[in-house]
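Narrative summary of target 7.
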Amino acid sequence: MSVRHTHRSWLAAVLIGASLWGCAARVSLRVPPAAIAELPLERKLTLLDAENDLLAAQDARDAQEDAWYHARDLIDDANKRRSEADEQRARAKKSGAPLETFEAQIKEAVARIHYAESEEDLQLAMLKASDGQLLLAQAKYELVRANEVEAAALPGAAGVKVPDYQKQVDRLAKVAADRQAEVAKQKEKTQAVKDKWTQARAELMQASGGGVGSAWVP
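Modeled conformation, tokenized:
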């Protein structure tokens, strides 16, 4: 099984867990397709803007999913660097070489792992926030549809109550705001971890005389 396939399987499990974590976060009210079919063309055209917003939210969510995959790849890269640093230190110790630079290299590698893991947490929080924005866009889309159906006063509009659709938008707007607040909290945590990694990298650069740890060297 490929790493990316494993990531996708893990993502599915995460999002299922997220839906349980926020069981109220779903669009439960949808305008019946039959009611939309009865709308005159001019009213259907008014739905285009809301539909475009929905498509944009879906695109943003997909892009954030890719960013989360990339963050997980960086964890793999960081763990590889730690293994390489351990091997280099072991060889240096065996040969009797000074270990100061190698110890600093291991410290930097460990700090890099912590930063990569925190960045993955941040990207996952942002993915959940993107899911929240997508749900909100879906709810707004249904509200626009409900408004048009009710305004047309067609037979298929029976049972479509605009205030209920507005309540759905309000509920999911709060969900989206709460998830964005979690992103803000995680950003602060990730920045603190990044600062520690930056310090460890500076110490490595100093220990190596600038040969290792430069910001221009991966």
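The chain has one domain: 40-207.
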